[in-house]
Design goal:
The chain has about 55 residues and is mostly helical. It has one domain. The protein has three helices and no strands.
Length: about 55
């Protein structure tokens, strides 16, 4: 999970397209655990990236 957090932090600063695809793919894989606090936070941060684009 630390790797996902690091990737999101990197994307928040660089907005790299390839990285976005990878991180959003990982987020799709985590859907069954969407109610877990860490996954919910990561999802919210990714939604923030989408709306800021």
């Amino acid at each position: 999970m630390a790797s996902l957090t690091e990737a999101i932090v990197e994307l928040e600063t660089t907005r790299g397209g390839g990285g976005m695809n990878i991180v959003f793919g990982a987020a799709r894989e985590l859907r069954p655990w969407r109610q877990e606090p860490f996954v919910a936070e990561a999802h919210d941060r990714l939604l923030g990236l989408m709306t800021a684009a």
